[in-house]
Structures are given as C-alpha cells and as structure tokens.
C-alpha cells in the first residue's frame, strides 16, 4: 500500500485518519437545521394542486371557490406564472436537444401525473390543502405513453408538439476503432436487451423551501434543501428576472439528496413568486405523495448490448445502443450521460461504439441519481459478459482476468473521450477471488443443499467516473457550471479558522473532511476549525456537491488556501519571535520554533494582530483570509470488483444473498470512516434497486401504481445482506493528495453481481435475467419459462 | 374547515416538564411537537407510519408520532430526541455509540433510530433481533451497518440494574 502524503502536523488530525464527524453532535441531539426546522415570522404555507392524469388539456380552471376559503391568501395558475417568470433553465442540457420551456405550472397541457397545475398559499398547509379540494379544474384526458419502448411508435402522442415532431430529444454516438469489423471477425457474438428499472432516489427529507421577500430592500432570502445553493441562485435569478445579487440561497442541513436535489424545482420557484407577491415568507414542504410524483426519478432505460470475443474470451468489440426515458421534461440535470462514458467498463476494448437516445414519456421527469448512468450500463455489460463466458466454457473470473486493463494500459481513453487515470484493476478482482474462494466455489456442482437451496456466485467489475474532466470538457457539452471547488479560510479572534464553502451538508461528511484537510495543511487544530457550509451570502462561488467530485476539487482548493493562510501566519509570527518563517511550525494553538520549542506565540495573538493590522510586518496587508479556486486537471476513476453469493430455491424462486463482497480503490482515503459510510450506503441503494425498488406505471391509466412509502420497497435493516468490504489504495496521479471520488461507486456493481449469481446457481436450468429488479417472482417466472419449454434438468 | 375552528386543550409531560396547550383536533402529534412546542428534532418522512423518523417515546413506549393525533398526548409522558443528552457538552451513551460507529450521515432519520433503540434498554437482543426491530425506521444513507454496530455496543451497558433504573428514569 502506498501512502503519499504523511502530513501529520500535530493538528489533531492527518489525512487518512478516521476522525468522528463534526456534523454529528448537532444531528444526534435533534439540533439539525433542515428546511422545515426554520420558520419565519408571519410565514404562510403553500400547497400544490397536481394533475391526476398522465396527459391532459386543462380546458377550464376556476379558482374562485378556493380563493374565497377563509385563510387563503394567494393563488397562482399557469397564466400568472407565464407572466411573472421565465421557464426554469437547465444546468446540464442534453447535447443536441431542443429547449423545452419548463414553467413552474402547467401551461394548458399537463404532461404527467403529478404535474403542478395550481399553487395555493394560505395561513396553514391544512387550509391550503382544503382549498385545493375547492378548485374546479376541467381536464380533458389525452392519449398518453408511459412505456419507454413505445414512445417513438408512429401512434404515440408527441409530448411537446410545438417544438418537436417526435418524443426523441437527442441521439449521440461515440466510437473508437472499428467495432463492426471486429464483430464480423469474432468467434462469438452475443446480444440482449436489458431493462433498467425506474427508481426513486428517496431522500428521507423531502424537498422543501422557505422563501422570504423583503420588499423594501428587494431581496429574496431562499432557504432550500439543495445540493447546489449557488446554482439554485443562478436559476432563481434567471427565472425571476432578478439580479443574482438580490438573492441569498441557504442550505443548512440537507436530509439526503443523492443527486436528486440538483437545481431549482418548480415548487421552489412558486414559493418565491408567492413570497414576492405577498411580502410574507412562504414555506413549502413536500409530502411523500408529492415526492413520488413530482420530484425527479432515476435510472429508467434499456440497453441493447452486443459483445464480440475471440474463442479465448478476449473482447474484440462492444456495441451499446441505449435509450434513456427522461419522463415529461428535461430536468435541470438532463439525462444520464455516464453510460456512454463507462460502457466498456474496466476492460481493454479499443473497438467500441455507444449510441444514446434520450426520449420523453408521460411520466415524472428523471433527474440525476447516484451513479447516474453507470449502474445501468454496468448491469447490461456484466450480465452479458457472463453469458459469453458460459458459452465459451470459460469461468466468469477468467474472462474478467483476460480483459481487465493492466496498469501499463493506463491512462486509457474510452470511445467517449474520457481518460481513465492510473490504477491496478486486476488486484481487486484477485483479492475478491481469494476472499470468496471463487474457483472452488465455481467448480462445485450446483446441487440443492439440505434446505433445498442452490448456491451460486456472481461477479461484477466496474469503474466509476469521479469528478469532471475540466471546465473545458463541461463547456463542450453546454453545461452551465464549472469543474472547480472553492473555499475561503478566515482567521478569527479566538485563534480558529472559519472555513466557508458553498458545498451544503447533505450527509457525506464534507464538514469533517474539509476541516481535516484544512487542519493537516495549516497546522491549526481540527477542533478550532468551524465549517460554514451552503450559504451563498458567505461562501465563494463554487459548483456543488455532486458527481463524486466535491473532495477531488475541494482538496486542491483547501491545499492552496491553506498553504497561503499558513504562510501569512508564519510571517507575522516570524516578526514577533524574530525567527525565520522556515524555522517555525504550527501546533496546538501555537506557532513555535522548530529548534527551540519554548519560543512560541499563540495563534490568538497572531490572528488578532492580523485582524487589527496592529503589530504586523511593515508592508504586509492587514487581515488573514485566503480564498482559492481549484479545478482538477482530469477526472479520476475509482475501480474494483464485487461478488454476490446467493442461495436460491429452484421451486419457489425465493433467494437470499448470503454474502456480498466488495473490493474497491478510491485512492487515498481522507477519512476511512467516511469512505466506509459512503460505500455501504451506496451499496445498499444499489441492492435496493437490484432487488425490490421499482416505480411502476399502469399502462392503461398511465398513473403511478406504487407512489407511497407503503408500496415502494426501499431496503430496511433486516433486508440488507452481510456486506464485506476490502480496499486497495493506489493514489490517483491526477488529484491533490491522490484522492478519488467515492460517493456513488457502491450503486454500480450490485445488480449484475446478483443477476450473475442467480444465473450461476441455476446454470443447470439455463435461466437468464435481463430486467430489474430481481425478485423471487422474476426468478420463478424465469424457471417456469424454462420448464414450459421442457428444458429442465 | 379551518385550523382554528376546532381546538382542544391538552395537558401532558414533555421531556420532563408539564405543558398545557390548545391544539387543533386534526393536527398530528409530530406536527404539534415540531411546530407548536418547537421541538424540531422529531422529523417527518412519510406521514403514513412507514419511515419511522418521527418515532418518539410516549409513556415509555416507542410510537410513530405521525400516526397519533396531538390530542392523544393528553395526560401522557412524552420524550423526544432532545431529552437524551444530559447537557450541551455530553452525549447520551447511545448517541455517543452512534457517533463512534458513523451510524448517521444526513442525520434526518437519526432521531427515529435513537428513540426506537432507546426503548431496547435492558433487553437481551442479538444482532438479528436488533436488525428486525429497527426495520421500522428507514435510513437511506448508511446501509444500517453503523446503526447496528452502535446499538450492539451500547445495549450490554444497559443490562445492569443501575443503568436500567437510570434508563427508566430518563
């Protein structure tokens, strides 16, 4: 194991230490500050009336009875919204797609169940909800399409006929080499269509906003549950036609986000419009029924995957054509593009092609969700690769061994132009093989155990793109944000540092990791660093917490700002102590001489001198505050392999995951505690999507069938299998401190590992799985299929 | 019907102090505690009794407070997450165990887990039993492992008579 930076500086921490989190005490005491925990004097509450149909024309709308209800103070309809606001802008457009005018309320046509139609502000939420019942809305239901394989049929209704002639938003092909020619040479070509389920990111805190307008000052104070306060501010300014300077966005504690809370939502904009009209603060807290219908969903897609190999199982070409169904609108974060970046996975495939289609349907919009294209394509590729291995009579372990990129192949450019940085992809696979005793396991006959169950093992190898490859890369794709992060470090009179970041606190432990790096770089004690996160009025402009990129970019900013902060601290101390700055060090609240540790000055003294400008070197500017912006030169790729061991009952299809082993490299771990938390959390989300989560729409009515906590099955504690984690730690050569991102990787391999394990257990039956989730019913149906064909053993 | 039209006065004990309040009859207990009493540590995730983050203690039993009306608190002894820590510097042993084991990330579900787990004090439960019992609260961040480890570590400390009476007295 290589550890590059041993910056132990008596600062209460070092990079790599498993410190307890700064965030924990307040959250454990119930002292967090989530949106609904804040309240403003004389605040009103907002509720939203939503279309119950998947597609409808609003023939007539009468709000008079609702407006007459005592306690109702303001009502907005689509007409007012069109006058008062611009459509919500997109942060990450789908390249090549037309702009869809996404107003906060439906304009004549509602395009999915849950589409906001009227918003009502009243003395309380209960009154606002009562008023919704009094609205008279005459809907004319229109033909709808919710099946993603049918949206391009000639008879499918076109969702945006004024702008588009079909429901195809955009298509994009990337390729390298000559994959078609290679397929023609291949000894074996296998193909299938893989269906990836629509799921809910399911943050425990739903969306919410508290918007306050000070009309005398013409200033909007906007408290929101968001991952990207500075980007929400930008979108608000655009939609409300205000200067950004008039808007302050604050995200204090955010109760989970997972990519869903990226950008401005219609309801948030509505709250601001109401507040500006009324001159009263307006709060909107989403209820869970709204969440399922009107936030954003994740994942839904189908992948047509083709793999061609030689007779030894060496991959000659991969062709992946896939369709992302993004629902009725292009949400602020567009469609997942990472399937195109990582479709060849960790393998050596010079000849490959990927084609993405982005389509619309009468369903809730799809937004970013943890992994964002990577779990989807990983499922298709890894399951098909196992089928290839089986047909060639090669073990799934060996086919991966033969194809994984070797350290000397890296950096490796994929067809989409992404560059994998350094790594050793084989090592995690070998560790996994050892830990699971794979070969012995695989060679055993698949006979039922005493309990009637058959055991199987399945593998899944992966890469995860973490961070962005520069602002130039983003600019080429039309993204309205950069690849950098920024921090401000400001000395305070108590001898501590106020650390300001635009990254809001969503659970990843950024307050901890930022303070930890700041302490390691400056020497100021970890406990003396207070992190102020997520307030646009305090923090330097930044990008935000998403794409597993925060720490990759922020580590560089913290290093630069920390170095400058330390230099100035030492210069002031050097003058007082009459010792050269090179001979000084910072520890335990003191600057001390390295040679004569008794010669010291307190940081309180140094910082007060700097703050007052009294008693500092001639010519040195007063103040002790440093800001740095840092853009990593490249994205970094995490990598690894996972295995699932399942025991399946061939009669009923019921199965358990008896082991789940995950071996992974995320470079240098700033805090191993946080890394384990991120990996486990993402794995369980990935397992949930693989095993039980699925948002289902009724084909006939176009309505969401299971849009409540009661009907949507996120994993509970007793559903989670035993998970074993192992790590390698190869520092990335493109990031500060060698870190790689870690937030999303766990979502990537579970589905394929479980599918492959089920196929392995049932290999004598010859079943195959091409759709998620994998439930006992799925397994039973697959077995019935085989039995009906008379092919059972 | 408006909020103010139908109200009832209730008297109950919250985190050790007696309170008399007038509550709208259709307000649930969680909304009441959060918005009228000002104890915002109890969170709401679904308001249909599934997610469990609103779990509080009513007469020493864990209750999902979104499924209870505020008027039902009349005469009850109620405890919320704010009652756990002895003061502003020290944590309750269960909270400290959560911190040690990284049993929370975004923290939104945490009060629910704490108030549920606290009710296990004095019980002898193995890992599987703990897992089963805490399945009434959802967590989307941690994958539950840290929560299980924290409760496993804390629980044996509640088995002595002294800590039992201490727990009961809290």
TrEMBL record, chain A:
Residues 29-143 form the Aldehyde oxidase/xanthine dehydrogenase a/b hammerhead domain. SUPFAM superfamilies: CO dehydrogenase molybdoprotein N-domain-like, Molybdenum cofactor-binding domain. InterPro entries: Ald_Oxase/Xan_DH_a/b, Ald_Oxase/Xan_DH_a/b_sf, Ald_Oxase/xanthine_DH-like, AldOxase/xan_DH_MoCoBD1, AldOxase/xan_DH_MoCoBD2, AldOxase/xan_DH_Mopterin-bd_sf. It holds the Pfam family MoCoBD_1. Keywords: Molybdenum, Oxidoreductase. The keyword Oxidoreductase applies. This is Molybdopterin-dependent oxidoreductase. It comes from Acetobacter conturbans.
Automatic annotation (TrEMBL), chain B:
The keyword Acyltransferase does not apply. Keywords: 2Fe-2S, Iron, Iron-sulfur, Metal-binding, Oxidoreductase. InterPro entries: 2Fe-2S-bd, 2Fe-2S-bd_dom_sf, 2Fe-2S_ferredoxin-like_sf, 2Fe-2S_ferredoxin-type, 2Fe2S_fd_BS, Beta-grasp_dom_sf, Diverse_Oxidoreductases. Residues 8-84 form the 2Fe-2S ferredoxin-type domain. This is 2Fe-2S iron-sulfur cluster binding domain-containing protein. The lineage of its organism: Bacteria, Pseudomonadati, Pseudomonadota, Alphaproteobacteria, Acetobacterales.
């Amino acid at each position: 194991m290589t550890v590059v930076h041993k910056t132990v500086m008596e600062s209460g921490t070092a990079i790599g230490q498993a410190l307890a989190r700064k965030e924990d005490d307040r959250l454990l005491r119930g002292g967090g500050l989530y949106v609904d925990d804040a309240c403003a004097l004389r605040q009103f509450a907002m509720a939203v009336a939503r279309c119950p149909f998947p597609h409808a024309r609003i023939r007539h709308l009468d709000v008079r009875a609702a407006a007459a209800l005592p306690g109702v103070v303001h009502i907005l309809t689509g007409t007012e919204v069109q006058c008062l606001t611009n459509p919500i802008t997109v942060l990450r457009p789908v390249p090549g797609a037309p702009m869809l005018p996404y107003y906060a309320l439906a304009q004549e046509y509602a395009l999915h169940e849950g589409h906001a139609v009227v918003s009502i502000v009243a003395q309380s939420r209960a009154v606002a909800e009562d008023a919704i019942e009094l609205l008279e809305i005459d809907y004319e239901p229109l033909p709808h399409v919710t099946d993603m394989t049918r949206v391009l049929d000639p008879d499918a209704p076109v969702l945006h006929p004024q702008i588009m002639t079909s429901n195809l938003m955009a298509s994009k092909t990337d390729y390298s080499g000559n994959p078609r020619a290679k397929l023609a040479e291949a000894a074996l070509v296998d193909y299938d269509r893989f269906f990836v389920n629509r799921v809910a990111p399911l943050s425990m805190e739903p969306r919410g906003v508290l918007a306050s307008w000070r009309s005398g000052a013409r200033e909007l104070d906007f408290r929101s549950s968001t991952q990207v306060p500075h980007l929400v501010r930008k979108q608000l300014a655009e939609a409300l036609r205000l200067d950004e300077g008039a808007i302050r966005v604050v995200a204090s504690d955010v109760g989970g986000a997972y990519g869903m809370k990226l950008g401005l939502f219609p309801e948030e904009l509505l709250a601001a419009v109401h507040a500006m009209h009324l001159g009263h603060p307006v709060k909107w807290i989403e209820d869970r029924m709204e969440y399922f219908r009107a936030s954003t969903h994740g994942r839904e897609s189908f992948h047509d995957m083709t793999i061609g190999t030689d007779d030894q199982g060496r991959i000659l070409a991969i062709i992946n054509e896939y369709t992302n169904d993004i629902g009725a609108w292009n949400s602020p974060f567009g469609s997942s593009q990472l399937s195109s970046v990582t479709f060849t996975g960790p393998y050596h495939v010079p000849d490959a092609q990927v084609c993405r289609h982005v389509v619309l349907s009468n369903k809730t919009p799809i937004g970013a969700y943890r992994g964002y294209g990577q779990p989807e394509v990983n499922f298709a590729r890894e399951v098909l690769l196992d089928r290839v291995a089986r047909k060639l009579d090669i073990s799934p372990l060996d086919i991966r061994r033969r194809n994984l990129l070797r350290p000397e192949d890296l950096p490796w450019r994929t067809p989409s132009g992404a560059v994998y940085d350094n790594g050793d992809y084989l090592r995690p696979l070998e560790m996994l093989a050892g830990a699971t005793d794979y070969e012995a396991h695989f060679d055993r006959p698949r006979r039922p155990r005493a309990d009637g169950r058959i055991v199987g093992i399945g593998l899944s190898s992966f890469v995860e793109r973490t961070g962005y490859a520069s602002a130039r890369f983003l600019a080429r794709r039309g993204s309205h944000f950069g690849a950098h992060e920024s921090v401000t470090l400001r000395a305070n009179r108590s001898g501590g540092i106020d650390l300001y970041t635009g990254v809001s606190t969503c659970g990843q432990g950024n307050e901890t990791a930022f303070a930890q790096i700041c302490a390691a770089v400056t020497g100021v004690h970890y406990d003396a660093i207070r992190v102020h996160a997520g307030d646009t009025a305090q923090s330097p402009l930044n990008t935000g917490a998403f794409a597993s990129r925060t720490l990759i970019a922020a580590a560089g900013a913290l290093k630069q700002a920390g170095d400058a902060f330390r230099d100035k601290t030492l210069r002031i101390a050097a003058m007082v102590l009459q010792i050269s700055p090179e001979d000084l060090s910072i520890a335990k609240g003191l600057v001390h001489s390295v040679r004569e540790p008794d010669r010291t000055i307190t940081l309180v003294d140094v910082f007060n001198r700097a703050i007052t400008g009294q008693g500092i070197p001639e010519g040195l500017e007063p103040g002790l505050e440093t800001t740095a912006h840092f853009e990593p030169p490249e994205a970094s790729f995490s990598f690894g392999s996972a295995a699932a061991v399942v025991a399946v009952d061939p009669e009923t299809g019921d199965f358990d995951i008896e082991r789940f082993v995950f071996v992974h490299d995320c470079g240098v771990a700033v805090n191993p505690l946080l890394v384990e938390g991120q990996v486990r959390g993402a794995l369980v989300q990935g397992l949930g999507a693989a095993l039980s989560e699925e948002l289902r729409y009724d084909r006939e009515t176009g309505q969401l069938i299971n849009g409540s906590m009661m009907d949507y099955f996120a994993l509970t504690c007793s559903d989670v299998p035993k998970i074993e984690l192992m790590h390698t730690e190869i520092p990335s050569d493109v990031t500060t401190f060698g870190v790689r991102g870690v937030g999303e990787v766990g979502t990537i391999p579970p589905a394929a590992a479980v599918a492959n394990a089920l196929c392995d257990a049932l290999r004598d039956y010859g079943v195959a799985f091409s759709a998620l989730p994998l439930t006992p019913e799925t397994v039973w149906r697959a077995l019935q299929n085989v039995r009906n064909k008379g092919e059972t053993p | 019907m408006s909020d103010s039209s139908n109200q009832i006065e209730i008297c109950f004990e919250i985190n050790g102090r007696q309170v008399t309040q007038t509550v709208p009859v259709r307000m649930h207990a969680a909304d009441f505690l959060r918005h009228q009493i000002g104890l915002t540590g109890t969170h709401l995730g679904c308001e249909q009794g599934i997610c469990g983050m609103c779990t509080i203690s009513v007469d020493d039993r864990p209750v999902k407070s979104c499924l209870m009306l505020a008027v039902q608190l009349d005469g009850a002894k109620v405890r919320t997450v704010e009652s756990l820590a002895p003061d502003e510097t020290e944590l309750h042993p269960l909270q400290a165990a959560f911190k040690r084991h990284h049993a929370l990330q975004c923290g939104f579900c945490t009060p629910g887990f704490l108030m549920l787990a606290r009710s296990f004090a004095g019980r002898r439960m193995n890992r599987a039993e703990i897992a089963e019992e805490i399945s009434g609260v959802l967590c989307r961040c941690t994958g539950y492992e840290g929560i299980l480890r924290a409760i496993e570590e804390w629980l044996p400390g509640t088995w002595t008579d002294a800590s039992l009476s201490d727990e009961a007295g809290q």
